Amino acid sequence: MEKLSKIRNFCIIAHIDHGKSTLADRFIQITNTVESRVFRDQFLDNMDLERERGITIKSSAVKINFRSKDGNQYHLNLIDTPGHVDFSYEVSKAIAACEGAIILVDAVQGIEAQTLANLYLAMEHDLVIIPVINKIDLRNARVDDVKLQIIELMGVEENEILLVSAKEGMGISDVLEAIVQRVPAPRGIIGEPLRALIFDSSYDKYRGVIVYVRIMDGLIRTGAMIEMMNRRSKYEVKEAGIFTPLEVPVEELGCGEVGYIICNIKDASEVEVGDTITDVTNRAKEALPGYKKVKPMVFSGIYPVSNEDYEALKDAVDKLRLSDPSFIYEPETSAALGFGFRCGFLGLLHMEIIQERLEREFDLNLILTSPSVKYKVKLAHGDLIDIDNPTKYPDPEKIEYVEEPFVKCHIFAPCESLGGLMKLCEGKRGEYISTKYLDPTRVHLTYDIPLAEIVVDFHDKIKSSTQGYGSLDYEFIGYRKADIVKLEILINSEPCDALSNIVHRDRARTKGLELVSSLKESIPKHLFKIALQAAIGGNVVAREDITALKKHVTGKCYGGDITRKRKLWDNQKEGKKKMRRIGSVDVPKEAFLKAMRVA
Predict the structure, then answer these.
(1) pLDDT tens, position by position, 539-549
(2) How many angstroms separate the CA atoms of 455 and 218, rounded?
(3) Which of 36, 85, 231, 456 is most buried (most C-beta within 10 Å)?
(4) How far apart are alpha carbons 338 and 332 in whole angstroms?
(5) Which domains occur in the chain, in start order?
(6) Distance between CA 34 and CA 244 in Å, rounded?
(7) Burial 358-390 (b: 16+ CB within 10 A, else e)
(8) What whole-number distance in Å separates Cα of residue 53 and Cα of residue 567?
(9) Does residue 162 have a pLDDT over 70?
(10) For residue range 374-385, what is the model confidence (pLDDT) as tens digits?
(11) Of 570 and 407, the one with more pLDDT
(12) Which residues pair with 12 in a beta bridge?
């Protein structure tokens, strides 16, 4: 067990692509935490998906041994965090397990949206914050301008801001020294009953659930009997260990340390992130505060392409939620797609990542329905209900009014793109709040915008209109009344529930046209005419027709009386009428996939 005074727990927080993972790599290299022969870039990013996209999705922990200038050996527990707004829950989990945070700012980009959001989160938890400016080696680095931004934002002295180039390895030792000097040692009490915070977990098919813990008070030993205080379930600790970043077993985890325990837990639902672990024989009086319950912002249905894979999908979502508690789900059934799950996500990127992880890690082939948000519907008889699924939307005559969720959007961008961004926000039904100039080249634009307008393509359009220099952060601010309707897609007068949408009335016709046009391109011709319609209630707002597959029934006629040909044509017409009446339309899965990508 380590002495508390020699332990430092810290995380790295920043906006996406400001160099968090590269800085963590340099910490690992300079302290010889791993051998050079096994080292690789983005060492703490374990998923192929993270390495391919160049983003951090999961927080990763590693124990670093560092000898300071004062001659003492310190044990630094580093947690690398994601930078994208959709993974802010991962950041909040890491912050709760630390006493300090490095806030990393790109010397070219300056302070961006998620930099602010993560900074405020760290300040709420009273973490000691060390400001670091990265990428100072770049030709277009604006070190002095970024220093002024940090000083104005945090009120720090200029000599407290550290300058590094994580890529070139410049200034890394100074950051480690600052962690030792500025970040306080853990505040736990060694002699108190065990209290350990579960800040993450993962699943191993051979060992079961691996529980990631931060020991707040007391210690935890291999062989001890422990209890999850919220769930009241008891287990024996089969293995305890630390991250180096590989899992290394130890006899005990002491107060202030970060590590893992394995208790042969096979059911993923038995472990809850934010729960408190205590010792059965010397039970703590009260649990740790844990985490705020996360509220999903975007909803979508996930279905297996083959209904035979439903049980495999059920097992997969159970195990995936273990490593990502911000992902929620419940079973649902669709007439078009069969059995599946209605899932909640923190954003559109989060939804894409969950889909890819399910497909890669569990070898599934999936269909996702169009993303939607949660609406509050006041019914005529007085009840207020939450609706996130178009199939559950009540009939218009039963509705008194509908409220949609609004978010406050903070957009950081170059000044020259201000006009284009304001036009984009106005086109998304945004309400202007403020414009603030951070320096002569960058502006902070604030708008209140309906959440439904930003979940699909808003972030991409910001990047396009700012040549990649714009960034977006948003926070939920409540519900407001709006003219919301259910847009149904009819295929030969039959509703297709999988393609239904809840939209603002002003957007309904445009959305309907896009959907029926997409279906027209994707559905193959049949022997009868197919009508594709988008309707609100009983009113059709958009229509496309797929013409019948032609058959040349008179091709075999050579000469002779015209009445013979007319007879064949009349028979063909009667046959097509009958087919239109009793024939069913085969809609390929590709048509659903293409239609659901319509913004």
Answers:
(1) 888 888 888 77
(2) 44
(3) 85
(4) 9
(5) 4-182 (3.40.50.300), 195-279 (2.40.30.10), 298-368 (3.30.70.870), 398-482 (3.30.70.240), 486-596 (3.30.70.2570)
(6) 8
(7) beebbebebbbbbbbbbbbbeeeeeeeeebbbb
(8) 64
(9) yes
(10) 889 988 888 888
(11) 407
(12) 80, 102
**Which residue intervals of 411-504 are DSSP H helices?**
418-427, 451-454, 458-465
**Most confident segment among 197-211, 297-311, 348-362, 415-429:** 415-429
Phi, psi of 378 (to 5 degrees): -90, 115
Instruction: Give long-range contacts, CB 8 A cutoff, 24+ apart: 170-174.
Output: 170/136, 170/137, 171/136, 172/23, 172/26, 172/27, 172/30, 173/30
Q: Which residue has the tokens 């909803």?
A: 299
* Amino acid type, 581: R
User: If residue 91 lies in a helix (H) or strand (E), which one and from where to where?
Assistant: helix 88-96
Strands 162-163 and 128-134: parallel
3-class state of residue 216 by DSSP: strand
Tokens at residue 8, please?
Answer: 């430092």
According to the model, what pLDDT value does residue 406 have?
92
Query: What mean pLDDT is reported for the chain?
Result: 82
Residues counted in the chain: 599
